[in-house]
Amino acid sequence: MAATAAGAALTESHRLAQARLGRSVVRQMAGLWSLIDPADLDATVERWLRLAVPVVERNHDQSARLAAAYLRTFRTIEAPDLPPLQLPPPPTFVPAQATTSLTVTGPVTVRTATAAGSSLPAASDAGLSASARAAMRLALNAGRDTIVGAVNADPAAQGWARATSGNPCSFCAMLASRGPAYSEETVGFEAHDGCGCSAEPIYSPDADWPAGSRQYQDLWRQAKAEPGDTAANFRALVEGR
C-alpha cells in the first residue's frame, strides 16, 4: 500500500513490467511448442522440456531482479527515513518443479484431451495454452516471492496488499478485496496459472489501498448481502462490472 502518489505510480509501473515479462514468457513458450508432436509425445516431450525449463528459469531470475529494484525504490519513497533495505537472497529456481508443472499442463493435457475425444490440433492448442500459462506463473512467482520475502524480513514493513490489473479474474479480485490483510502470520501469495498480480508493501497504516481494491471490497460486501452463495454472487458481480 502506498502512502504517496509516487509510490502508487511505482507499484503500477512494476506490475506492468512484470506483466510484460509474463507475456514474453507466453510468446517464448509458444515458439517452442512446435517441438511437440501431439501424435508422438513420448519421442518429443524431452527435447521440448530441455529448452522450455531454461526459458522459465531465465524469466524467473529476471522477475526477481525487477522486484528487487522496485522494492529498493519503493521503500526509499515510502519510508525515506529508514536505512537502506537489506534484501534476503533471491528465490531459488527449482528445475524439477518446473519440469513437473510443464509436463502436467502440456503433454498430459494433450493426452487427456485426445483421450476425451478432442482432435490432435485442438488437444495441442489446449496443451500449449495451459503450459504457457503455467510457465508464466512459475516465472512471475519469483517477483512476488521476492516482495513477500522482503516484507517478512523487514521489521519496518507492516505487511503487503495484492495489486491487480484493471480487469482481474474474480479469484484475484476477491483476494485484493481484503486490502492490507497479508503478512507473515497470514498467508503467502496465491497465484493461478496466467496470473498477472503483484504485491505492494505496507509501511504506513494510513496508506491507500492498491488501485481497484476498495471497489472489490464494496463488491464483496454487496455479494454477502445478497441471497445465495457469496463467492458465486461475487463472481457474477466482478464479471458483470
Low-confidence spans: pLDDT under 50, at least 5 residues?
Answer: none
Radius of gyration based on Cα positions: 20 Å
Helix content: 55-70%
Biggest sheet record: 2 strands, antiparallel
Q: Provide mean pLDDT, rounded.
A: 93
How are the strands of the biggest sheet laid out side by side? 1-2
The first-to-last residue Cα distance is 24 Å
Shape: globular
If helices are DSSP runs of H or I spanning 4 or more residues, what is the number of helices?
8
What's the count of strands?
A: 2
Element-level helix/strand string: HHHHHEHEHH
- The secondary structure category is mainly alpha
Strand content: under 5%
General description of the model:
The chain has 241 residues and is mostly helical. It is built from eight helices and two strands. Helix 1 (5-32) packs antiparallel against helix 5 and helix 7 packs across helix 8.
Fold topology:
Elements: H1 5-32, H2 41-78, H3 95-105, H4 107-115, H5 120-153, E1 159-163, H6 170-176, E2 198-202, H7 213-225, H8 230-239
Antiparallel strand pairs: 1-2
Helix pairs in contact: 1-2, 1-5, 2-3, 2-5, 3-4, 3-5, 4-5, 6-8, 7-8
Brief summary:
The protein has helices at 5-32, 41-78, 95-105, 107-115, 120-153, 170-176, 213-225, 230-239; strands at 159-163, 198-202. It is mainly α.
Name the features.
single chain, 241 residues, two-stranded antiparallel ribbon, 8 helices, 2 strands, mainly alpha
